[in-house]
Amino acid sequence: MTAKAFQDYYPDDLSYCYGCGRLNEHGLQLKSTWDGDETVATFTPQPRHMAIPGYVYGGLIASLMDCHGTGTASAASYRLEGREMGTEPPLRFVTASLQVDYLRPTPLGVALEVRGVVEEITGRKVIVATTVSAGGETCARGRVVAVRMPENMVPPSQA
Amino acid sequence: MTAKAFQDYYPDDLSYCYGCGRLNEHGLQLKSTWDGDETVATFTPQPRHMAIPGYVYGGLIASLMDCHGTGTASAASYRLEGREMGTEPPLRFVTASLQVDYLRPTPLGVALEVRGVVEEITGRKVIVATTVSAGGETCARGRVVAVRMPENMVPPSQA
Predict the structure, then answer these.
(1) Strand ranges (DSSP E) for chain B?
(2) Quick check: A64 and B85 in contact, CB under 8 A?
(3) pLDDT by residue (tens digit) across A142-156?
(4) Residue-wise over A62-85: b if at least 16 C-beta within 10 A, else e?
(5) CA-based nearest distance A70→chain B, Å
(6) Contact status, residue A51 vs residue B18, Cβ threshold 8 Å
(7) Do the beta carbons of residue B56 and residue B47 sit within 8 Å?
(8) 20 to 30 A Cα–Cα from B153, which one of A23, A54, A77, B131?
(9) pLDDT band at A1, cuts 50/70/90?
(10) What is the pLDDT of residue A154?
(11) Which strand (E) or helix (H) includes residue B62?
């Protein structure tokens, strides 16, 4: 049995994100799940996602961390409240800030593992430490500060 | 007359970056130029680049800052040396770290202006402060630490 990803619980109106929306046919469709107390996602970049021959462009790494971070923030908030994801009221997050340190070139053509660890979770803010690794080697480290989605961003059907 | 963009001077082998490579037909093809002592690029996201309805996804903002930052680092280094871009030996940069603060939701459907200011330029490292704005309003602020491309990343034909 494959665990349902965090993003699979997002309501349809919030599932068009280029990075992680399951309904964005042009997007990356990142899928994040729990792995014990950490979160994990796997993504294999396409040849087009090149920086220079053989390596992944930095914006993709940032995108993976961003969407994995907000997904982790949401999942961790449900878990903290002892609730199943997808139950009402929804706990939706957006990114307030993103920090990425590129430690080494990220090879293109292999599966990348994105990991998240909740560093801090306080009310409306969740801080998630993230890594992106290839073949067991950490290529980038990051930190996502996720905050609850402002009410004025919520689509009318989800308000 | 339209000024040639920084990225138009990149050698062919280094022009396939998803964010700014002029030869990546699937990519964003960002074009950065000088505007006095600042650098500027304009980019209009496509509908697919959505985070949620009406707003741009954060990974795109990060990508624009990243590529504008490394382009600015290269251009500023040539300028510091009093050389025209594209002259030998080449000055190529990659991103060591990227910080993005998302100040407000970035609207989708309008042209975004990416700006860069060199904060520090010392030998192999250039720090570029960046903003992304829409309709004159700053939506995100960032900082790119760019470093000279490691020799082992340089494609053989450009070594």
Answers:
(1) 32-35, 38-43, 93-102, 112-122, 125-134, 137-148
(2) no
(3) 999 999 987 767 665
(4) bbbbbbbbbbbbbbbbbeeeeeeb
(5) 11
(6) yes
(7) no
(8) B131
(9) very low
(10) 67
(11) helix B58-80
Cβ pair A18:B52 closer than 8 A:
no
**Which residues make beta-bridge pairs with A114?**
A41, A132
For A79-88, what is each residue's pLDDT tens digit? 999 999 989 8
Report the sign of the C-alpha dihedral through residues B53, B142, A49, B33, in that order: positive
- What is the rounded distance in angstroms from the CA atom of residue A104 to the CA atom of residue B75? 23
- In chain A, residues with a C-beta closer than 8 Å to the C-beta of B53 are 13, 16, 155
Distance CA B138, CA B97 (A): 21
Q: What pLDDT score was predicted for residue A117? A: 98
SS (H, E, C) A13-81: HHCCCCCCCCCCCCCCCCCEEEECCEEEEEECCCHHHECCCCEECHHHHHHHHHHHHHHHHHHHHHHHC
- Interface check for B14 against chain A (CB to CB < 8 A): the answer is yes
B86 interface with A at CB cutoff 8 Å: no
Indicate the SS3 state at residue B99. Answer: strand
Of B66, B99, B150, the CB nearest to A59: B66
**How far does chain A reach from its first CA to its final CA, in angstroms?**
33
Of A21, A51, A100, the CB nearest to B17: A51
